[in-house]
Amino acid sequence: MSHRNAPLTPTGRLRLARCVVEDRWPVRRAAERFQVSHTTAARWAGRYRKHGAAGMQDRSSRPHHQPRRTPDIVEERVVRLRREHRIGPVRLAARTGIAASTAHRILHRHGLPVLAATDRATGEPVRRYERARPGELVHIDVKKLGRIPDGGGHKALGRAAGRKNQARTGHGYLYLHTALDDHSHLAYTEDLPDEKAATCAAFLHRAAAWFAARGVTVERVLTDNAWAYTKNTWRDTCHDLGISPRWTRPWRPQTNGKVERFHRTLLDEWAYLRPYNSNTERS
Hints:
Elements: H1 10-21, H2 27-34, H3 38-51, H4 72-85, H5 89-96, H6 100-109, E1 138-146, H7 154-157, H8 159-169, E2 173-181, E3 187-192, H9 197-212, E4 220-223, H10 232-241, E5 244-247, H11 257-271, H12 279-282
Helix pairs in contact: 1-2, 1-3, 2-3, 5-6, 9-10
């Protein structure tokens, strides 16, 4: 790619070179005509004589010899440590005795992505995907939250007073059931008292109706392998609604990561946004 201030494109260089080599123009005349220095005109003419039209393309500015470049054995060790331990440039630098910036350049040179773009379990690049149309796949998951006692919990009253209030007024959990469309990221969430098979099935009925009211027909649902989603109640409900059930691989929550990430957003921007004085206030 040519520099943005370069006076000549590859086409312009070819024209200049042909004027000098084929039309026998003096170098200074060609330089004046194309508004470049005579040394530039001579360089492109020389490349044209040696390489023809192919020599008019940009070349890499990397030097032919790099005596101070990191030795290959060190580069191999950096790459091996990264693949085995999945650590970043700072920790790699500490283990190999080089600068963190050097470790970063080595990783870049070998095509290794930043850690944030890799799967934690395997170290492989994360493969992003999106279904082609709304309703083709809907992710479903449940997030369990501790109930807030009347009068507030530890976030509103402090640890000691919060524990006393919790013990006095009782405790328990609420369950956020969420259905999230893979293509549009449209999401439907309900606050329910449990995650039993019947509760999950009833939630799917309401979620499918909610999506249908917005012009989205649910074709497939993806869940984890929780007990409620493996029972016949769930399978029969999917069959009645004309939905194909799918399950994630065991110990692979990343497969259902879109709804997992949505739940994290709910926690950050609603459930844990500020102290609440009761569960009713938060709901």
